[in-house]
Request: fold
Amino acid sequence: MAAPEGTTIVLKGGRVVDADGERTADVVIADGLVVGVGPDLSGERTLDAAGCIVAPGLVDLHSHLRQPGQEEAETIETGARAAALGGYTCILAMPNTIPAVDHAGIVREVLELGRAAPCDVLTAGAITVGRAGEQLAPLGEMAALGVRFFTDDGAGVADARLMRRAMEYAGGLHHAGRGVVLAQHCEDPVLASGGHMHEGEWSSKLGIPGQPAEAEELMVMRDLALARLTGTRVHFQHLSTAGSVAMVAAAKDAGLPVTCEVTTHHFTLTHASCTGYDPVFKVNPPLRTDADVVAVRQALANGSIDCIATDHAPHTQEAKEAAFDAAPPGMLGLETALALTLTELDLPVAEALALLSWRPAEVLGVEASHGGPIVPGRAANLTVVDLEERWIVDPSALASRSRNTPYAGRELAGRVRHTVLHGEPVVIDREAQR
Amino acid sequence: MAERERRSTPPYGGVFVARSQVMDADDVRRAIWRMSHEIVERNHGLDGVVLVGLQTGGVALAHAFADALQEIDGASPPVGTLDVALYRDDIGIRPVLPEAVTEIPVDLDGAIVVLVDDVLFTGRTIRAALDALNAFGRVRAVQLAVMVDRGHRELPIRPDFVGKNLPTRRDEMVNVSPSGVDLGELVKDGR
Amino acid sequence: MAHQHLLSVSDLAVEDLEQLLRLTDAFAEVSRRQIPKVPALRGKNVVWLFYEDSTRTRLSFEQAAKRLSADTMTFSVSSSSVKKGESLRDTVLTIEAMGVDGIVVRHGSAGVPWQVARWLGDRVSVVNAGDGWHEHPTQALLDCYTIRDRCGTVAGLRIGIVGDVKHSRVARSDVLAFTALGAEVTLIAPPTLLPSNIEGWPVRVSHDLDAVLPDLDVVYLLRMQRERMTEHLIPSLREYTARYGLTERRVDAMRDDAIVMHPGPMNRGVEISAEVADLPRSVIIDQVRNGVAVRMAVLYLLLGSGVDRVLGTAPLDADALLTAPEPVVEGAVG
Reply:
């Protein structure tokens, strides 16, 4: 599937942006690797990058690919295609499939399905069996297959003692010389119980049961304490409140081994979006207040947040055509995250890419092949982005099998032109090649 | 209310502009007096008679009849008002809303109802009124008193007591008030 | 003609509310007739789409529709058959395909009437008959009508809404309607039974019924549901009654002309004592009676009047409402 042995491809006329800086250069690729970076290079095949930036492929720490179990909403193939079109070369599948990714058998199945995908697909493993929060899952058996990220995402691990044990146990696990990461979906299930949106002025007005910001913050607080207790690395998933962001920033300053991500929707949408009762705006953690959005944006700007994740959560049209409180939470993200980040955040391009590419690659431990600087000898996982191209989000034009984007009709600036995966162009001129 | 702007849905909307007066105030007063006599005569007195004015044009007229009958007969019959909006046959064709609350002060079982309206035209309002009356009991008889019969009937309805037969064109308008009867037309956006 | 919806009290301008109340007088009179039925909605078909048990509201709407000669159908959904599969949208489109003019929706989830209206566009009128904790606009209209009937006006009255405001669609609609008509509303409940964020609401809040009772013209009691106890919102019904129940002793503290209201069904002995429910100042039965007239007015306005503006999506042109129905100069249309 890769380009025929020996074929050289040149990304011509672009501006290279990576962790090392920016420079105008052509990039030559052969045998899955970057083989040349510099002016006036040529190859047997040319991909036009004029007017574009050439960047390391994006890395998503938070994709729900729904396979196995809910293939009507998404498959690993369709999700990976959406990712490639969104500029991603590596995505981390969440383990809340049916059944959950909680043992080696399912890990193998997901990795196997991902091998043919137009994007590297890794999977997170569940912390507890069946994500039920009761019994530790075989983390070691999964780590042996290369799983480095464990989470019960979709729910947090409510039992503090169990979470403590998981952290302690995970502290003894290694794969290829690196430790593993426990990641948490922070939500106190009792305090949040029955809530379908952020508890605030809008939930009060709309009569929709709400969940308070504190339901998230309590678990952030608890896990920071447990990280201090155990010394294990903890990654906080989709932080959505000003309080959460501030606590994690303070913990980092205090030297705790923690990282965190925020999603694109938590810095672009607020709970006011729920006024029309359209379940497309239902998501967990819920859309918060203006003040939370401001806090998240400030934290992104001042570097206290490590990465932007998508929390890409496909749901079928039928599922989202239910009553607001009956509809499942979640929204699409892979095909809009880059453009939203570029359009909505007032960040230098390199900063935006750091949040979307090299920092998540480091958190995930894939920096050897993804997100690294574009220099000869590195894996050719690249994306070419036209920063000027304006486009309007059209749900029916998305590659995802689902349509639940909250950004329908929104005009965004910045679009992926080509994506190269291990030397193979998987997206050429905005068209997926496989 | 007479001069309230009427911006209702075309083709009915507009403002009435009088062109010629066909009855003056005295004519109207005399007509009321004569018709009241006819009502007494027809019914051999006022026993069992109930006057029912149709909203809105017939209400004032019904009270005028009641006052005249008081003078003629020494007793005035009960006066009710009837809004026929909910019985109209043009519901769904043009905007129709009740104008006022219907008030029928007595049980109409066995009563002789004299329906009172200002102008008789197609007869459709009277048809609706006849229908509406059924809800209040089985009347002995219904009679119809109008100040002006302008013709153009679309239903087999005729008045029992008429102030004036007035030949009109279909597109003309007739306006009845205590100060007289005017013939004119409706001017669209005539503000 | 574009169909109109009645989804929320907040979609009604003050003039609309007043017009609706005036119009209700005409329909209340119809109900008093020997034969309380008019042919106004002959040939119109109204469906009750009730996803939540509500015998009282459904019967009230049914009575209203029948007094207007509309045909009615009931689509009642037991919770089990919902789970069997058909999506809400498919259900609604299926009903529409049968040929209906109005859908009256009651659903346990807030917002469903909005979704239904969105799917149907202006092809069918949608009436919100109660959505979750959110709104119950016809209840608010009948409450306003009852207050106006008993007290002459709503403006300037001091109305206390007592009890479980948090979970009450009645309270949300009533707050909007009462305050729009110029009443001064106080919510009286323990903090656990108030919505979490009501800073922007045009109301006062009190946790002490006895303190405010002597000032109230209207004491509106909400139904107190037993399950609130298991949710730790109140320690016990007994304690609730002791602090917020309208007992005979408390009635003595009320103004002589103050009235007592309740949306029903009552829990006698909990939020209202049996004796108080039967006092002349209790207008609870009037509310039920007026409910039919108000719903006649709403159904007629939406399905029959032809008054062409959209309740529920745009503020009305009150002027059009006042002038449009006028059959111009009597005699012009016969």
The two ends of chain A are 10 Å apart (CA to CA). Residues 57-364 of chain A form a domain with the TIM Barrel fold (CATH 3.20.20.140). Chain A has eleven helices and 23 strands. The mean pLDDT of chain A is 96.
